[in-house]
Structure formats: structure tokens, C-alpha cells
């Protein structure tokens, strides 16, 4: 219960209690907080007081309302440095979250003209096109479309890609380990069809990234991504050619 005799308002007291629970990970990032009714009962305050506090915390980005589901603790805004020592995966894990992919499409066809010089392929050489959504916790983070020469994924299928990720699958199929990457990024308005998949409004500003990953001097992946920029930012400290960081979801570079 809150104390009405204290020289601070009930709203201030309730706000402090909620922030304390978030800081102590009683409600970790992405978790649903107690309902308005339960907060009223727990702290002995009116529904209006609870709503005002929650509304302010939502405006500040501490909480997020999900229509028909309740109020949740916002995911942290990761500062995503493109450096050889940075791993987004490890930072996500430190926050008690998990990252995973949903495979949308996996198909094979002759390499498009723009990819042939990237992979040193002829017109008859096939590539795999792999389209995925990436999640952090239960929130959508990015849409990705990656291309890899078929010869690097011999014997692999959708199930293995979904379970293991691209880079571990390439390694098992060809023995090549991702080593370096060249990355370009720019702010753009999200294409309507991708905005729909990411659950954001049309023309929302996002980060558009293109990445060429290499192993032993040859390109093993060309990837295009649209990343939700309201929760993630990228900071450049050195050249965009970086060492690869390999983990189970397969599409991580240190700083990617």
C-alpha cells in the first residue's frame, strides 16, 4: 500500500514502485506487468491514478501497450556498434532476452545478374534466396533476405536453416566459416509489403542494411535487411570490414 501521509503524491509513489520492479527485473524486458485492477488493489489507489502513471510511462517509452493484451515492459534500445568486439546476441542475452528467426521463404533459382559478380558465378549457377523475420523476445526486429550460392548449402534444407541458422549450415555443408563483412546502411521509408510483415505503419522510417559476408576470400552471403529503428541504433567506430561472430542463429556478425 502507498502512504498518503508522505510529502509526495500517490502518482509519484506508484511510479517509483513500478520503476523499481522493472529495474530489479521483477518484470523483465518484454514481460507483461500487473493489470490496472490488480495495481489498484495492491497499492490502494484509484483506477485514475494507475492510468495516469501508466500513460506517462508509455509516453516515456518505459512501457508499451498492446491492444487487447495489456501493458508490457519495453525492450531496451540496444546501441549496435559495428566493431569487432561487439555482439548483439550477447547484449540481448545480458538483458535476459532471446533472439530467433522465422523462415518465410527458401527457394532456388539461377543467380540474378547483380549477384553474379558478388559470388563470381555464371548465368547457369544457382543461388538460394532465404527470406526471414528476426525477433528479439516476442517483438519483431527485422526483415531479411539473404542469397547464398547453392554449392555452399548442398544437402541442407529448410528445417536445418530454421533450426541452426545460415552460417552454421554453410559451415557444415562446405567447411567455410564466415570471417569478414562489408556493410552499408541508410535510413529509408519501409516498403509497404515489408512494413506489414514487421507490424509497423507504411512509410515508417527504418534502417536499410546490405551486407556481403566472406570466408577465405570468397563471398558466402549477400543480405538485405530492413530493421526497426525505433528500438535499435547503429554506431560506426571503424571501417565496415569486420570479423564474423558465429552463434546458433547464424546471421550474426560482431556488430551485426
Structural class: alpha+beta
SSE pattern, N- to C-terminal: HHHEEEHEHEEHHEHEEEE
**Radius of gyration from the CA trace?**
22 Å
- Termini gap: 45 Å
Write a concise synopsis of the structure shown.
The chain is of the alpha+beta class and 256 residues long.
Write up what this structure looks like.
The protein has 256 residues and is an alpha+beta fold. 27% of the residues lie in helices and 33% in strands. The protein contains eight helices and eleven strands. The chain has a seven-stranded antiparallel β-sheet with strand order 4-5-6-9-8-7-11. A hairpin with a 2-residue loop joins strand 8 and strand 9. Helix 6 packs across helix 7. The relative contact order is 0.14. The C terminus is likely disordered.
Q: What keyword list fits this structure?
A:
disordered C terminus, seven-stranded antiparallel β-sheet, about 260 residues, single chain, alpha+beta, two-stranded antiparallel ribbon, elongated
